[in-house]
Design goal:
Bound molecules: ligand BES, zinc ion, manganese (II) ion
InterPro entries: Leucine_aapep/pepB, Macro_dom-like, Peptidase_M17_C, Peptidase_M17_leu_NH2_pept, Peptidase_M17_N
Protein name: Probable cytosol aminopeptidase
Cofactor: Mn(2+)
Low-confidence stretches: none
Distance between the termini: 34 Å
CATH class of the largest domain: Alpha Beta
Function: Presumably involved in the processing and regular turnover of intracellular proteins. Catalyzes the removal of unsubstituted N-terminal amino acids from various peptides.
Helix content: 25-40%
Mean pLDDT: 97
Number of helices: 16
Structural class: alpha/beta
CATH topology of the largest domain: Aminopeptidase
Family: Belongs to the peptidase M17 family.
Length: about 500
């Protein structure tokens, strides 16, 4: 276990195994970033030439490790590039702390002397380090690499209440994000719907500080209660579907937020089978459920005065003799009928049931999170998620919340043409689940979901791209599950408790 603390002190005087400082690019060459001044003066005129000899350019994300040979009190110095001095944002600092976390290999004590001018910076440094040092080793037989006993963030505002709170918040949110990452990274065979539901129950018992109640509905009850979407998608699997509901009801709640997350524990495509290569990462198709569940725990642990009702439909989209067929009609929870035209567009079917269920609670706002469409990855790439909804202001405030949280969302429209197609393209049912035309698949999926939220204010986050990092780590984002959504949803709850829209 690593303990994190805040201390006023200077980088050149602290005695720890490693000290991390930032370097910025200026018109006059490389310069020590705030927090690193003392280190630079300890090296004196040698500082800049030393860096340039090593080929260090100060570019954001760059890092180099230098044995200090007694120039400062600590034996090892890690320099992290922060890019141009005039463009130094808190996000840059957050990413630099993530890069630093991955450069610290075997140290027992680490001092972070990155720019920590205010509580927001302290939050960014803690976020970056906590998220950047994540590793998923559950299925590796070698021992996991050691983690430091102590990480100290050096800051002039160390003693301020805001800074202390920022560090606390960062720890709660990062722990939740890493819980979501663990679930996403767990192989689908080890996280079937029943096992995922059990894991949520266990996580809730482990986290007594979060006053969250968990309710799990099994397949018999789902069938009896008319959850046609969840049953229709989950019926071909040997591992039956579940609906997991979480509830956090603080006294004096200022708003009521409902969260819905797509929990497809594996997406083979069903009878509209995916090609083999497209299936290999489909254990990640429960990233939305992981995010909303973990975020609920974090919001409760922080004690935010917002009521949260969370719905995570869980199903495995498989193939068998009793699978839902293209052309079948499902009656969704609430009674609307849907013609299934492509069993690989399964996410919207389980979400529809859960969205209707969420509206029954009359929340002020519903946010759903889902790895819903490959089209969204084509539109926005793998680092930006799509955001769509039925209220422009809400979409904007959630996008802003994402920006503060270090998660990128970009708005896409739900056009009346798409809504028209959803409502008229089926000759046999109320709604057509799938559009025969590929283009604008993200918009169509959202238009379909919109049919199930009634008048409730609603936003939909399509995280198909950034839920999973198939490449190497960058900034504070590791390879594999990213946990995207957790931090933004906590921020949304924070804004709601401050009286904003989300
Ligand atoms: N889970 C996928 C979407 C996805 C794709 C997530 C890539 C992450 C990475 C979803 O269920 C799906 O299969 N969508 C289809 C929809 C189509 C059949 C309308 C898609 O995007 O191809
Ligand atoms: Zn899917
Ligand atoms: Mn699918």
């Amino acid at each position: 276990m690593t303990t994190y603390s805040l201390r006023k002190g200077s980088a050149e005087k602290i005695k720890s195994d490693v000290v991390v400082v930032g370097v910025v690019q200026t018109e006059d060459g490389l310069q020590a970033a705030p927090g690193a001044e003392g280190v630079a003066s300890a090296y004196g005129r040698r500082f800049a030439p030393l860096l340039s000899t090593m080929g260090f350019t100060g570019k954001a994300g760059e890092t180099t490790t230098v044995p200090t040979g007694g120039v400062i009190k600590s034996p090892l110095l890690i320099l992290v590039g922060l890019g141009e001095r005039d463009r130094l944002t808190t996000e840059r600092v957050r990413r630099a702390a993530g890069v630093a976390a991955r450069s610290v290999s075997n140290a027992s004590t680490v001092a972070l002397a990155l720019p920590a001018l205010d509580a927001d910076h302290v939050r960014a440094i803690a976020d970056g380090y906590l998220l950047g040092s994540y590793a998923f080793t559950a299925f590796k037989s070698a021992d996991a690499p050691g983690t430091p006993n102590e990480v100290v963030i050096l800051s002039d505002v160390a003693r301020s209440k805001d800074a202390g709170r920022a560090l606390e918040t960062a720890q709660v949110v990062a722990r939740a994000t890493c819980l979501a990452r663990d679930w996403v990274n767990t192989p689908a065979g080890n996280l079937t719907p029943p096992l995922f539901a059990d894991a949520v129950t266990t996580a809730s018992k482990d986290n007594k500080d979060a006053k969250v109640t968990v309710k799990v509905t099994d397949e018999a009850r789902l069938e009896a209660d008319g959850y046609g979407g969840i049953i229709g998608v989950g019926r071909a699997s040997a591992n039956p579907p579940r609906l997991v509901e979480l509830s956090y009801k603080p006294r004096g709640a200022k708003a009521h937020l409902a969260l819905v997350g797509k929990g497809i524990t594996f997406d083979s495509g069903g009878l509209s089978l995916k090609p083999g290569a497209a299936m290999t990462t489909m254990k990640i198709d429960m990233s939305g459920a992981a995010a909303v569940i973990a975020a609920t725990f974090a919001i409760a642990e922080l004690g935010l005065p917002v009521r949260v009702s969370t719905f995570a439909p869980m199903a495995e989209n498989m193939v068998s003799g009793n699978a839902t067929r293209p052309g079948d009609v499902l009656t969704m929870y609430g009674g609307k009928t849907v013609e299934v035209l492509n069993t690989d567009a399964e996410g919207r079917l389980i979400l529809a049931d859960a969205l209707v269920k969420a509206t029954e609670q009359s929340p002020d706002l519903i946010v759903d999170v889902a790895t819903l469409t490959g089209a969204c990855v084509i539109a926005l790439g793998d680092r930006v998620a799509g955001i769509l909804g039925n209220d422009e202001e809400t979409v904007k405030s959630i996008k802003d919340a994402g920006e503060r949280a270090g998660e990128a969302f970009w708005p896409l429209p739900i056009t009346s043409e798409m809504t028209e197609k959803v409502r008229t393209n089926s000759k046999v049912a109320d709604l057509a689940q799938h559009n025969s035309e590929r283009w604008g698949g993200t918009l169509y999926a959202a238009a379909f979901l919109q049919e199930f939220v009634g008048d409730t204010t609603w936003a939909h986050l399509d995280i198909a791209g950034p839920a999973f990092n198939e490449k190497g780590p960058h900034g504070y984002t590791p390879s594999g599950g990213t946990g995207i959504g957790v931090s933004t949803l906590v921020q949304v709850a924070q804004s709601l408790s401050d009286g904003h829209r989300g």
